[in-house]
Amino acid sequence: MSPAADALAARVRETGLLPAGKPVVVLLSGGRDSVCLLDLAVLLGEEATVSALHVNYGLRAESGDDEAACAALCRTLDVPLQIETVAAPASAGNLQAWARDVRYGAGARAAAARGGLLAAGHTTTDQAETILYRLAASPGRRALLGMPERRGLLVRPLLAAGISREETAEWCAARGLSWVDDASNASDAFMRGRVRERALPALRELHPAAEANLLRTSELLRDEAEVLDVVIDTALAGRDRIELGHLAALPPAVARLVVRRLAEDAAGRLCPRASARLPELLALAGGDGTAMLDVGDGARAVAEAGVLRFERTPRRERPVGGTKP
User: Higher-confidence residue: 287 or 9?
Assistant: First the structure.
């Protein structure tokens, strides 16, 4: 390999996210990033430890070609390939979110079955796009934290190594590996496509280091988030509830984070809107008996005897037969 390719492989090796001898399932779309990741996994791993998973959603006319390209690549690299063919249900709603859930669900099952890791080919370019997208779509510091390098079985070795989309293309070209381009990634039909094709290039025009500054800011905030987690743990002292008087005495920023932590622990999902309800929650302290407040995202606040806790919002029962009058 060239010195540049050797250096890139060394950066990925140093992350420790593709440990030799550890089974790894690579999410393979056929794009340059996942092709680069699969090749690196084979290069850095040991025999019979690497496999690939491709999910064919059948959403585009080229879906069959993408699957064929992945199969050809895996034959070249001598990597077992698992193909999941799925069809979007009528109730799928946000297709991109549905496809992501299907992909990670299938990947987690495959990795768990092998007792290994699930590797996704996200790069620093994807990270910058994700931060901008989340910042536009939802308020709060969490939008700026970006994607973690590791969460459970899921690892992102290229992101951890600081590798950009341009570098994955250079790797594939140097290694003689072809890839497929998904035209929908640049489509204005999806918000992420508009971020990729408009917002990020506009920031680069404003300042050549805009993307690097965005990534560095996210890195610093993730470090600071660890400190905030300790503050929240201290405020809760291991409990799943808090006295409203104690909550009111906390600095507002900490109180909002405590509310969000409690709501998310109870709901088992992200509750970005919960912290904005802090004034209403504090107002529950003056009531008698039990008071409840739905804070959104499947979480309900319950105040009893001056103590605040959260529970999942019960699902509404649909009437059997008939329609609303």
Answer: 9
